[in-house]
Each structure stands twice: as C-alpha cells, then as structure tokens.
Amino acid sequence: MFSYRHGFHAGNHADVLKHMVLIAVLRHLTAKPTAITVVDTHAGAGLYRLDSEFAGTSGEAQDGILKLVASPLAAEAPPLLADYLQLIASFNPSGGTRIYPGSPFVTQALLRQEPKDKLWLFELHPTDSKALAAHVEQLHAGRQVNLKRDDGFESLRALLPPPSRRGLVLLDPSYELKNDYGRVAATLQESLKKFATGTYMVWYPVIPRPEAHELPRRLKTLANQAGKPWLHATLNIGQSPARAPTHTPGETAPRPGLTASGVFLVNPPHTLKASLQQTLPAVLEVLGRGKGQAQFVESAG
Predict the structure, then answer these.
(1) Catalytic residue at 151?
(2) Which of 125, 169, 203, 235 is CA-nearest to residue 36?
(3) How many degrees, rounded to 5, is the angle at CA 162 between CA 161 and CA 165?
C-alpha cells in the first residue's frame, strides 16, 4: 500500500483538472467572511520538483502543466485556467515551472489569517509524510495547518462538522487498493450525515476497472439520496502516440500511463459548471494527444 508516490505524477493532466477545480471551490468558499475548514485526507508530499528524478522518470508533467504553460492559451486563458496558471507561477517567482504545489499548498495559498481558516492534512506514506512535514514547516503557518501521519478516512470523522459549519473535504486516495473506491463512497455517505452543508470533492482515475466506472454512479446516488446538488467532470487527453515495436527478446511493452481522470463534487459552487464548460475544451485542445480524447461535465440539483 505504500508503493504509490505522487512525485511521479505531479503536474500531469489529472493534477490540472483537480487543482483547477480545487482553486475554484476555495475561491467560492473564501468569498464569504466566515472561517472555513479544509480536510485533505491524502495529502502526499505537498511540494514537488518537476526537474527531480521522480518527475523525470515519468515525464507526465510534459503532458500537463508544462504543455499548458508553453502554449499560446496561457496568454489568453479562460478565467478558471488563468487563476490556476497564476497560482502555479507564484511558486516559481524566478520564472519557469520547476516547483509544482500539491493540493495542500494550493489550499494553503488561498486560506486567510482573518478569519482563521484551518487546514488538516493526513498522509500515511512514511517518506511522503516526512517530506510533507518538512515542507509545511517552511510555511511558518502556525496553527492554521495541522498535519498527522494517519488514515485520512478514519481521522475525518472527528473533524466533522467543523466549528464554523463551513468547509471542504478533499478525498484523493491513490486507489492502488481496490477497497479505496468503497471507502470513498462510504466516507462520503457518513460525512454527509454529520456535515450536510459541506462541500465534498472526490478525485478518481478513469481506468479499465469496474470499481472506477462504478464510483461516480455510486456518488451520484448518495448525493441524490441526501438531496444535495452535485457536479461531475472528466478530462481524457487520449492515448499517447504508438511507439515503434521492439524486437528485443524478453522485453515487455511499456505500461500505458493514465489518460483520464474525473472529479465529483457534492454542494459545488453554482458557477463551477459554466466555468468548466468554458475551460475544459480549451485545455483539451492543448493537452489532447490522440484517440479517445474527450471532456465531459454534468450536474444535478
């Protein structure tokens, strides 16, 4: 369960979708004066070097943030994308895109000292948890950021509802374990009973696995049963160009990387659907690379 490292995938197309939506949700929540609480159940290491060995091994940022930054779209981006690109640029004041912030640092960058917004971070991976602690320490954020090496699914229970009754829960496990899909659905169902007015954001990979295809259907059912509005968006950049066949004895073909991911939100900002419908086609025009590329947004409630 500890083999997944987000450093291999930082800045890829899935991060582009996830972090654009995360920023939009946080902008909406912080537009009101009441303090908010954000819980990130699977925080990762928090900050990533795109010129590191990890990122270089996969090269996934080349089909994500780096391609967007280098495209003409960056100069004339729709507001949702422009906000995302500006936040990433703020972590690279010397220019270029060497540093990529994960969800904890994207979130912390948008929280407020007054009112006293709170961020709870959970990460079980021993190496990433240690790296996250070191990165958070550099923020000098004091009590605003709380970090624990613990199971985020379990730890969430004690934090709901937050004191201000306003907040966001980000559920973003690696899904390496098959039961992560079921735990996401069960956690959402339980959390809605304790904190019905909260905003919930689930990221998931779109892969050829029954649990992955079933998850958004389960989440829709849960939201509908709770009488809550929901939004579902996916981004598929398509298959990478076929590589020349190899004739080396015993050599196996490279595993295809992730081509698509989705986000599902309960109690989303009412403006988010229109923003995504404006933005995702433009993003896909830049990141799309082959057969299967598509984007999709649906909502109800």
Answers:
(1) no
(2) 169
(3) 80
CA distance 6 to 48: 9
* Per-residue model confidence as pLDDT tens for the chain (301 residues): 444 567 789 999 999 999 999 999 999 999 999 999 999 999 999 999 998 766 566 789 999 999 999 999 999 999 999 999 999 999 999 999 999 999 999 999 999 999 999 999 999 999 999 999 999 998 888 889 999 999 999 999 999 999 999 999 999 999 998 999 999 999 999 999 999 999 999 999 999 999 999 999 999 999 999 999 999 999 999 998 654 343 444 444 444 589 999 999 999 999 999 999 999 999 999 999 989 999 999 999 9
Length of the chain: 301
Q: What is the CA radius of gyration of the chain?
A: 19
Q: Which two tokens stand for residue 134?
A: 């070191």
| Candidate list 63, 117, 128, 172, residue with the active-site label | 172
CA 200 to chain centre: 12
